[in-house]
Amino acid sequence: MKFFFDNNLSLHLAHAIRELCQVEEHVREVIHLRDKFAPNAKDHDWISALAVEGEWVVISQDGLRKNDLEREALRKSGLIVFVLQRQWSEHRHWDKAHNLVRWWPSVMEQSRKIKGGAAFRIPWRHAGGGRFEQVRL
């Protein structure tokens, strides 16, 4: 599995998760958008590039509030997408880091179960054993 953090999340957070995943044999790569693309890369461009490569799981905070072109690119991409619930944006860096580390085993497990594209929302609260809400693209 390969995980890709969108530009609306911290580069440092992505790299911290990458380091923590060194012990996960099924995680091949964890990168931030700026590790692979220009910081101003258009969403539909990186979505298309990741779709061609395959096996990417996208982590984003923008709530999938994208224009029609970007939503269509996501629908056709076959990518697995996890979107942080809006409440995440109300919290400080360290609180986000703490909570994402708590959620990360569930994100990895859900990603392993999915074949083909799907989108899920990650709630702020880690109640009920880490359950996601499926999101329609």
From TrEMBL:
Pfam families associated with the record: PIN_10
InterPro entries hit by this protein: VapC45_PIN-like
Domain VapC45 PIN like: 1-85
Entry protein name: VapC45 PIN like domain-containing protein
Species per Swiss-Prot/TrEMBL record: Ralstonia solanacearum (strain UW551)
